[in-house]
Amino acid sequence: MAITVIIPDALRPYAGLNERVPLEASTAAEALTKLMERYPEIKARLPQDLATLPPNMGIYRNSEDLRRLQGLETPLREDDRLTIVVPEGSM
Known about the structure:
Elements: E1 2-6, E2 20-24, H1 28-38, H2 40-43, E3 58-61, E4 64-65, E5 81-85
Parallel strand pairs: 1-5
Antiparallel strand pairs: 1-2, 3-4, 3-5
């Protein structure tokens, strides 16, 4: 599935300054793994254990918090947006 990962300002320096990264992924976990493979510097800024996101970080499929869905195993559909949200100044 073609999806788009939305990168917050704080993480853009570690993702080639990109605001949006198109990827092929069928789950949130697969999308984040591919994002970290493409931009290795971003890996250190994301939790090492993606299954336990810190409370101050959010990941959303479109406008739905993954914590209220199936976590990182949440399926993605064609043209979904996966948005990473981090508090300002936390990186």
